[in-house]
Design a protein that fits this description.
Layout (H helix, E strand, L loop, with lengths): L2 E4 L1 H9 L4 H10 L5 E4 L1 H13 L3 H12 L2 E2 L4 H14 L3 H12 L4 E4 L3 H5 L5 E4 L3
Parallel strand pairs: 1-2, 1-4, 2-3, 4-5
Helix pairs in contact: 1-2, 1-3, 3-4, 5-6
């Protein structure tokens, strides 16, 4: 089974219609109907900051509905340990290291992002798809 971890930026592009990336993520989704999209609590936290700050109830509901329909990946102590190693070894920012460690810990086969730096840090065998326009 193919499992793709959806980085925060991808979800923002998709639900907030951010060109040209929204077109790219929609095309990626259309061409990969067999993939299970995976999200973590960190993705939820990151995407909800701006809509909550702006009191945008409609966008908050859109995010919550989308998130509820995807595969939920918890972040436990093992993920934090892996993220620490990724952060040190690849000089990643903490959120990026946590996202990647979560995907690896839960055996995601793909990682969808807009950050090409994560390609080098990803474990062998994990396909990293970057949303280049």
């Amino acid at each position: 089974m193919r499992m793709a971890y959806l980085d925060t930026c991808c979800l923002i592009y998709l639900l907030e219609d951010v060109p040209p990336f929204s077109t790219r993520i929609r095309k990626l989704l259309a061409n990969n109907l067999d993939v299970t999209l995976c999200l973590s609590p960190l993705v939820r936290m990151e995407v909800l900051v701006k809509p909550m700050t702006d009191a945008n109830a409609a966008l908050i509901a859109d995010y919550e509905d989308f998130i509820a329909a995807q595969q939920w990946l918890p972040i436990g102590n093992a993920v934090f340990e892996s993220a620490l190693r990724l952060r040190v070894q690849h000089r990643l920012k903490t959120p990026d290291a946590l996202h990647l460690a979560c995907a690896q810990h839960h055996a995601c086969t793909e990682f969808w992002t807009n950050d090409e730096r994560l390609t080098q840090a990803a474990a062998s065998g994990m396909l990293v798809r970057t949303l280049t326009p």
